[in-house]
Amino acid sequence: MTTHPLTDNTAKNRLVKKVQDSVLSRWVNDPHRMDRRTLALLLLASAADVLENAFAPLSDEDYEVAMRRMRELSEVEIETEAVRCAGGGEVLWAVVAAFAK
């Protein structure tokens, strides 16, 4: 993830590990069951096109799984997801819609 250079490598490594884990070992296949912060991180990182660097250290198989899941997540219908969510989730989807354009 290289949109902004991080000088704290520990924080950067934790962030990259969180992104990797969220699309591999902690994948729930439903945006409404995901932690909102993690969902926002994934969708906005995808919109910024910086996920390939975070997935680069993965094995070929894990890389393909991670990219496929992110592609599926990025292709959800934003307006439909905003209507389905409750409790402030509409704001998240509005921000994602703004970045997706």
Summarize the structure in words.
It is a peripheral membrane protein. Keywords: Golgi apparatus, Lipid-binding, Membrane. This protein is mainly alpha-helical and 101 residues long. It has one domain (9-100). 65% of the residues lie in helices and 0% in strands. The chain has helices spanning 9-23, 36-47, 51-55, 60-74, 78-84, 89-100. Helix 2 runs parallel beside helix 6 and helix 5 (78-84) packs antiparallel against helix 6. The protein is globular and about 35 Å long.
| Portion of residues within helices | 55-70%
Sum up the overall morphology in one term.
Answer: globular
| Contiguous helical run count | 6
Q: What is the beta-strand fraction?
A: under 5%
Structural class based on helices, strands and sheet pairing? mainly alpha
Radius of gyration: 14 Å
Quick tags:
101 residues
Topology summary:
Layout: H1 9-23, H2 36-47, H3 51-55, H4 60-74, H5 78-84, H6 89-100
Helix pairs in contact: 2-6, 5-6
What is shown here, in short?
The chain is mainly alpha-helical.
